[in-house]
Amino acid sequence: MYRFAAVFIMIILSALPLPSVAEDESLCAPFRNGVVDYALVSKMLEAAKDGHLYRIRATNSRIGFCVDSLIGTIESEFRGFRGGLALRHEVWGDASQMMVMIDADSLETDASFIKNMLKSEQFFNTEQFPKVLFVSTGLIWDSDTTASLFGNLSMHGVTRPVRFSVELTNVIGDRANHEQEIIVTATAQIRRSDFGMGALSMVVSDWVRLCMHVNALRYENPV
Question: CB-based contacts of 55: which residues, under 8 Å, 6+ apart?
Fold first, then answer.
């Protein structure tokens, strides 16, 4: 009887439809519920439906920044982040899209006193502003692999437009429509004072270089 019940349950489960892209709640989860304009989230979901969305693999990616100071160049990384991109010249062209959500408290540096200072109210104030968000607003391709990526960067309670220089450095796959993995590097220069982080201006440069080396895996539509 138990074996019959188990088989019956398996038959019922096999008849149930697999979740579609729109039903996959984990997809674009950090950007839903009003965090990002739903039209942009829908665009990413549409890319996923077509097999052109790539999800960032945090274990193989690096996101951080460096800034000059009187004690030398300070380099920091964020260990926690999520996001995705529809960033291929031959598919999306100038309509390419990228979204990244960063856990500000995951910031790491070589020196603990610098890490604590950067997380403090003088700079990121990670307790009050735990997330850093980048959402692209446009892209202009210079070639098949290089482009200028424009978007809005939100951190420390402030949102400002930024421009990243982007390079698609690697595509892994057999054919143009079947790449499984892409690697993208992106760099930008910002003023930290534009984001309300002007403390220690005599010690730390106002100019900060943002760097992303993103390894992203193509999202497989479960349908």
Answer: 83, 84, 216, 217, 219
d(CA 147, CA 126): 31
The answer for residues whose C-beta is within 8 angstroms of residue 59's C-beta and 6 or more apart is none
Tens-place pLDDT, residues 138-185: 999 998 889 999 999 999 999 999 999 999 876 666 544 456 888 999
Query: What type of residue is 61?
Result: S
Instruction: Delineate the domains of the chain, giving CATH numbers in brackets.
Output: 18-218 (2.40.128.110)
- Say if residues 76 and 69 touch (Cβ distance below 8 Å): no
Residues 6+ apart with CB under 8 A from 79: 58, 103, 106, 107, 108
pTM of the entire predicted model: 0.84
In the block, which residue shows the tokens 């270089």? Answer: 209
Burial (Cβ within 10 Å: 0-12, 13-18, ≥19) of residue 198? middle
